[in-house]
Specification:
By secondary structure, the protein is of the alpha/beta class. It has 2 domains: about 20-280, Mur-like, catalytic domain (UDP-N-acetylmuramoyl-L-alanine:D-glutamate ligase, 3-Layer(aba) Sandwich); about 290-425, Mur ligase, C-terminal domain (Protein-Tyrosine Phosphatase, Chain A, Alpha-Beta Complex). Helices cover about 35% and strands about 15% of the residues. Helix 12 (about 375-380) links the parallel strand 15 (about 360) and strand 16. Helix 1 packs across helix 3 (about 90-110). It starts with about 20 loop residues before the first helix and ends in a 5-residue tail after the last helix.
Length: about 425
């Protein structure tokens, strides 16, 4: 297991301008592996990228296809980012491609960012291993994202867009959507998941400019909630969906976009295979219930423990709806373990979740240098009217919560790195 590779070394993004002037020479020095990979399905967006990618992957695998995937960030180990025909890259091969890419960087004369370097190395791995498809998600944005060097694409998918990385992508939803839409190509289908009206308008305008055909949720496909279940509906298709393997009603929206992408590929995949893929789908750190492990055993057996990587307003809203609905069905105290980075606006992240929180316990995220100190975060949370207590460690937070009145529900959120920290200390692998 590799937590972080020996190369490249991360450095602060605010020192560089995003673009292809570094990764293009690097790929050229590697003999252009991005031109030798399996045909790609490209996913951008703010929330739901990973879930949507996973639904597509598991549906394709259920139908008998082999699939590479590229995701970021990882939860517990770096190997999660690069999956070759359904299996995480080995430690040995990961070192091999990173070292070859490091030497190519020296030859290119350009110092790349961490994401550019790891993306180039991933492309090298994908070019050297056969598969039917490659599914990749953008790192940040889309237009100038390193993954956007890939041209051999079958279809694009744009997951839900909300506020995130505004210092790089813009301070309005329209600006952010414009950057995310940069993965679009002329005459190449783009599937658009459920969005706000402002985002829909922006994406429609960008698509029209380059003659990119789109399938929009709410216009070309959607969901029908009926007494006997949830149905996927479009002009050509209608069937009852299986309950997705990922928790939360919002996952039906992500699944609908994934289904539309699958159907647009015209592979002859039937509804039974689609539903089987939905049921099999797993994605760590996204409303994941923890039932065993080193930390879990400290907590009473009749308590619930959930972890989620939500770290922006859109993710916070999804969590807020989930917590409220769960509270209506099964009322229990909700204790939150929070770890958040300093570039996040705490009130925006927690505003929808706040009414459901009984008490918050704040921690410093060890794997995130820009994490709020627990004392500072506790002050910000308390300023929202949420009872809050700072903790020296994640273990201390778990122990303190376990002494609170119960049976209760625990939700750990605020950072994917916090979710990974919990899984690692709990003694679990992410997948």
């Amino acid at each position: 297991m590799v937590r972080m590779p020996h190369w490249p070394k991360p450095f602060w993004y605010n020192r560089i301008q995003f673009g292809f002037e570094r990764i293009a020479p690097l790929l050229n020095a590697l003999d252009n592996p991005h031109l030798k990979m399996p045909p790609a399905i490209h996913v951008s967006g703010t929330n739901g990228k990973g879930s949507t990618l996973s639904y597509i992957r598991y549906i394709l695998e259920t139908a008998g296809y082999s699939v590479h995937t590229y995701i970021s960030p990882h939860i517990v180990r770096f190997n999660e980012r690069i999956v070759l025909a359904g299996k995480e890259i080995s430690d040995e091969y990961l070192y091999n491609i990173m070292e070859r890419t490091r030497l190519a960087e020296m030859a290119s004369g350009k110092q790349v960012t961490f994401f550019e370097g790891t993306t180039a190395a991933a492309f090298l791995a994908f070019s050297e291993h056969p598969a039917d498809f490659l599914i990749m998600e953008t790192g940040m944005g889309g237009r100038l994202d390193a993954t956007n060097m890939v041209e051999n694409k079958l279809i694009n998918v744009i997951a839900s867009i909300s506020y995130d990385h505004m210092e790089f992508l813009g301070d309005t939803l329209s600006k952010i959507a414009t950057e995310k839409s940069g993965i679009m190509r002329p005459n190449l289908p783009t599937i658009v998941a459920a969005q706000t009206e402002e985002v829909i308008e922006t994406l429609s305008q960008q698509a029209a400019k380059i003659n990119c055909p789109t399938s929009m949720h709410g216009e070309d496909f959607g969901l029908s909630f009926r007494e006997d279940g949830v149905y996927y509906v479009s002009d050509a298709h209608e069937f009852k969906m299986a309950k997705p393997g990922l928790e939360g009603d919002h996952q039906y929206l992500n699944a609908a976009a994934a289904i539309t992408a699958i159907l647009n590929l015209n592979l002859g995949i039937n509804y039974a295979q689609i539903n089987e893929g939905l049921k099999k789908t797993s994605w760590p750190g996204r409303l994941q219930q923890i039932t065993s492990g080193n930390l879990r055993q400290i907590i009473p057996d009749d308590w619930e423990v959930w972890i989620d990587g939500a770290h922006n307003p859109g993710g916070g809203q999804i969590l807020g709806v989930w917590a409220y609905e769960l509270q209506q069905q099964d009322p229990k105290p909700l204790y939150a373990i929070l770890g958040i980075t300093r570039n996040r606006d705490v009130p925006s992240l927690l505003q929808f979740l706040a009414p459901s929180i009984t008490k918050a316990f704040t921690v410093y995220v060890e794997d995130e240098a820009s994490s709020y100190k627990s004392e500072v975060l506790a002050e910000k949370v308390a300023a929202m009217g949420i009872p809050a207590e700072a903790c020296e460690s994640l273990e201390e937070a778990v122990e303190k919560i376990s002494k609170e009145p119960g049976p209760a529900r625990i939700l750990l959120c605020g950072s994917l790195f916090l979710a990974g920290m919990f899984l690692r200390k709990n003694g679990e692998m992410a997948r």
